[in-house]
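User:
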Amino acid sequence: MKIGLYFGTFNPIHVGHLIIANHFAEFTDLEQIWMVVTPHNPLKKKDTLLADHKRYEMVFLATEEYPKIKPSKIEFDLPQPNYTVTTLAHLQEKYPQHAFSLIMGEDNLNSFHKWKNYEFILENHSIYVYPRVIETKENDSQLNIKNHSNIRFVAAPIIEISSTFIRESIKNKKNIRPLLPEKVWEFIDYNNLYKK
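Assistant: Predicted structure:
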């Protein structure tokens, strides 16, 4: 089976994440999308990050009614910090019957050459890229990556919703209910999350 891995802290998961995941499930040759909940990313503030199991629970609730989209907590038991190349090796060993590809935004592709063992990832896995509104000056290594045969640009919808915006809005007592899957909104509301 061809599986697309969509990594994120999902703090919280919002409709933008689902729109992207569903687009890749329906309009590419990927048969399933696994939404991989990443534990603490060293680049993100720990104090704004909910516990791993709560973020996983929200991804689970958000994807329940989408048979082609699955929540994954595969990185919870792997060494920290999480390197994508390590996760891919672990998945390939655990599920040798599947072919794993990465799903990433164009902004992440621009810094992909800084990832650990990025050349190995690029040679051994397809990378599906969705558009983002970004302005960058590209160097030669970035251009070479974009022209690589394993890079596939997908004309997915451009989503300009961020989890940071949602957390700030909840803290400021704004109604952002339309930006969250219904069950996720109920989970956040019931558990009084992101209020402080």
